[in-house]
Amino acid sequence: MTSQQYRLYLILLVFGLAGFVIIYNLARIQVSADAHALRSEADQNYMFKTEIIKPERGKIYDRYGNILAGNKEIYEVGISLDLKHGNEETIARDVSNVLGLPYEQVLGLASTEYNKGSSEYIVLKNYVEADAIVQLNELKSKYEQMAEASSRQRGRKNTEKLPSLDGLTWKASLKREYPEGKLAANVLGFYPYQNPKDKAHFGVEEQYDELLTGIPVEVRMPVEPRKAKDLPDIPPGTDIILTIDRKIQEAVEQILDHAVEKNLADSGTAIVMDPKTGEVLAMAVTPRIDPNEYWKAYEVLGKESYNRAIDSPYEPGSVFKVITMAAALDSGVVAPDTIFIDTGVFPYGGYDIYNWDRGAWGPQTMIGCMQYSLNVCLSWIAAERLGAQRFYSYLKAFGVGHRTNIDLAGEAVWPLSVPGDEYWSDVNLVTNSFGQGLSVSPIFMSMAVSAIANDGKMMAPHIVSRYIQNGQVVNISPRQIGTPISAETARTLTEMLAISVEGESYQEAQVEGYRIAGKTGTAEIPQQGGYTTNLTNASFVGWGPTDNPRFLIYIWIEKPRTAPWGSVVASPIFRQIAEKLVVLMDIPPDAQRKQLALTQ
Amino acid sequence: MASNFIQAFKQAPWRVQMQRIGLVLTGLVSFALIAGLYLSISASTYAVGVEVKELDWFKEELLRQNADLSTQKARLLSSAEMKKRAQEMGFISPSPQEFVYIVIEGYQGRQLEIPPKPPKSDVKQYLIKPDYRQSLWEYLFQGILILGQNSGVFQ
Asked: Which residues of B, range 3-22, sit inside 8 Å of A by Cβ?
C-alpha cells in the first residue's frame, strides 16, 4: 500500500466514522425519551390552536315569521403593532375621521412600541358599523394602489413616505339586534352584547338563554395546513317563534301609549290572549325601553318593573268579582236571577263594607250586582252564601297566589292569605270577594278569566308557540291546567257579563257589531295605614265574540289622573283594541258570521 | 480447467463497472422519483390545507353576512318602517266603521309561518377529498388498485 493509498483510506475511515456518528446520533435523538417529550410539548403548544366557536345566537320571531330579535355584523378595530411602520399619523388621521375618535388619542395609541408578549395589539374601537369598515377598507386599498404605482415608477426617490394603513386591522363578530326597536321589548327582554359574559335579562331572552345561546364548541385546530381538518358542524342557537302577533302587538302598544299619556297615568298594561289555547297574542306595557339601548333601562324605567304584565301583582279591584261570581254560580248558591236587596252597607268582621258610590241599590239580580259592580252584594255572596272554606277552595282552583308559569323570566306572585294564616282576618273574606286585600298580576287575571271564556277550561298562558332546534321544528301544545268551574257556569257567567256590557254604564266598552262580555275594575291603592283616596288602579277584562270567544283582553292603567274609574279610563282602551282585533284576526261581525254559518 | 471456464464467462471489468453504476443510478433515480412524488403530494396537501382554512373563514363570513342581511331585511320590513312608507305613499288607517267584510271562497286568513330552518346534520360530510386525507402508502396502494382494476388485472 502506497502512502497515497494509505492517506486515502485514512480519510475515508475518518469521514466514514464521522458519518456513522452523525447517523447514529440522528437515530438516537429520534428515538430517545427526551425527543419524544419535546415532540409532545411542541405538538401541544405550537402545532395546535384551541378556539372556542360560539354559534350564532338563535333568532326570535313573531307567529308570522317576522324577526323580533336577530344578529348584526359589527367590527372591532385595532392596531397590530408589529405591522405598522412609521405610519401612525395616517392611521390616526383616517381613524379619527371615519370613527370619530380624537386624533391625539389614536396617535398616542398607534405610537405604542411593539413588545412581543406584552404589547402586540391595541383595540381602538369596538362595535363599529359595517359602513365605517367599508370606508377604511377603501382608504387602505387606495394607499396600497398608490404604493404599487410608486414602486413601478422608475427613478422615484425611495425616501418619499407614502400614506399607509398597514397594521390597522378589524375583526367581525355578531351583536344582538332588535329590528322592531321598542316593539314587544317587555316580552323579549334583552341580551347585553357589550358584556357577553353577562347573561340575558328578562323576558324570552332570559327564559330561553341557554337554548338561544346554543352550545359553544372548543375546537383544537392544527396550525400546520397539511393537517387541516374539517371544522365541526356547529348548529346555531335555537330559533324561537312566539305566539305574539306583531301587528296586534303594535296596535295594542300604540293604543296603550296614547291612553297612558292622555290619562296622565303612571303606567299601562294590556294583554291580548286566545282563551282557547292560552296563547298570548300581545303583551304591552308603557313605559318600555328600546332593547338596542338596553343600558338606558334604568333611565327609562327607574326602579320600576320591566314587564308589569307578569312581575307586578296589584290589588285588581272589581274585575276580581268575575271569579267570585263564578264560584258562587258554580257551587249553586246563587243563580243569575237571585235577588239581593242592597241596603248600601254590609257589616262583617268588625268593618262596614260600602259600594263604590256609598249608595244603596235596592233589589238587584246577580246580573245587576255585576253590572253596577256592587261590593255589598259580592260581600254578601262570599260571606253568607259561599262561606270562607268554599270561597277559598275556588280561589285555589283558579290558582290565586300561585305562578301561572308563563314562559317568561321574572314572573312575580303575591301569596294569598287564607283562614288560619297569620295575616288573615274575617274581613278578608269579604274584601277579597271584590278584589281587595289580595294581589294578582295581569297575566294571572287573564289566565283565570280565560276559564270563563273557554267553557270552564283554564289554559296555561304561554308566549312560545314553537322552536327550531337542530333542523327540527318542535311545537308547544296548548296545555289545560285546570277546570275550576263547569262549562255551564262559564256560559251562564259569560251571558250575564254580556248583558252587563250591553247596559248604559258600559257604553265605552261596547264594540259595534260584536257581543262582548266584560267587567270593569276600580281599585284603591294600598299604602301604609290604609288606601289612597284619590289615586286608583283602573282595569277592564273582556272577551268576545261571546258565542265563540276568539280573544280576551285585560287592561290595567295605573294611577290615572283624569278620572279614577275603570269604566271611564280602561273601557275605551278595551273597545279600541277589540275594534283592531276583529280586523286583524278576520272576525266578521256577529250577524254576518251567523249568516255565513247558516249558508255553509 | 475450472479457472479457464470462469475466465471464459467472466464479464469484462468495464461491464461490471457499468452494472454497478447502473445499479447506483437506478437507486438514485428511484429515490428521486419517490422524493419528488412525496414532495408533490405534500405541496398539494399544504395548498389544499390552506385553501380549506380560507374556505372555513369564508364560510364563517358568509354565515355572519347571512345573519346580518336577514336582520337588515327585518329592519326594513319593521312595523315602524312599513308604516312610514305606507304614509309616504298616501295610505291612511281606516276607522272601524269603514271596514267591509267580504267572503272570499277558499281564503284561509293569515297563516302561521315557520322561518327557514337549518338542515339537520346527521351524516358526517367530509369537506376534504379522500386524496388529501390519505397517507402516501394509502395513496399509492389505492392508485395501484384502481390502475389494476381499470386494466383488468385485478378482475
From this structure: none
Angle at Cα B61 formed by Cα B55 and Cα B64, nearest 5°? 145
Which helix (H) or strand (E) element contains residue B20? helix B13-76
The phi, psi pair for A307, rounded to 5°, reads -140, 90
- Chain B residues in contact with A250 by the CB 8 A cut-off are 79
Domain residue limits, chain A: 72-152+166-176, 246-599
pLDDT in tens, A417-463: 999 998 899 999 999 999 999 999 999 999 999 999 999 999 999 99
Answer yes or no: are the C-beta atoms of A554 and A270 closer than 8 Å: yes
Cβ contact, residue pair A70, B67, below 8 Å = yes
| DSSP string computed for A48-74 | EEEEEEPPPPPPEE-TTS-EEEEEEEE
Cβ–Cβ < 8 Å for A420, A414: no
pLDDT at B102: 86
- What CA dihedral angle connects A352, A358, A360 and A363, to 10 degrees? -80
* A96-155 residues touching B, CB cutoff 8 A: 130
Mean pLDDT taken over chain B: 81
> For residues A200 and A191, is the Cβ–Cβ distance under 8 A?
yes
**Other CB atoms within 10 Å distance of the CB of residue A56:** 21
Least confident of A147-161, A269-283, A497-511, B28-42: A147-161
Contact B101 A589 (CB under 8 A): yes
Residues of B in contact with A73 (CB under 8 A): 64-65, 67-68
C-alpha A47/C-alpha A220 separation (Å) is 10
ipTM value: 0.83
| Chain A neighbors of B128, CB-CB under 8 A | 228-230
Burial environment of residue A303 by CB neighbours within 10 A (0 to 12, 13 to 18, 19 or more): exposed
Alpha-carbon span B100 to B113, nearest angstrom: 26
CA proximity to B113, closest of A384, A329, A191, A246 = A246
Q: What is the pLDDT of residues A8-17, one digit of tens each?
A: 889 999 999 9
* Residues 47-66, chain B, touching A (beta carbon < 8 A): 47-50, 52-53, 56, 59, 61, 63-65
Q: Which residue pairs, CB below 8 angstroms and at least 24 apart, start in B95-101?
A: B96/A512, B96/A579, B96/A580, B96/A582, B96/A583, B97/A512, B99/A583, B101/A588, B101/A589, B101/A592
Phi, psi torsion values for A465, nearest 5 degrees: -95, -30
pLDDT at B138 over 70: yes
Alpha-helix residue ranges (DSSP H) falling in A165-276: 185-188, 203-207, 209-213, 246-262
- B46 and chain A in contact, CB less than 8 A: yes
Does residue A146 sit in helix, strand or coil?
Answer: helix
* A65 contacts B116 by C-beta, under 8 angstroms: no
Domain A72-152+166-176: CATH architecture, name and number where available: 2-Layer Sandwich (3.30)
A439 to A396, A435, B20: CA distances (angstroms): 14, 8, 106
Which A-chain residues 16-75 have CB contacts (< 8 A) with chain B?
56, 59, 61, 63-67, 70-73
> A246-599: which CATH topology?
Beta-lactamase (3.40.710)
Three cell numbers written together for A479: 296545555
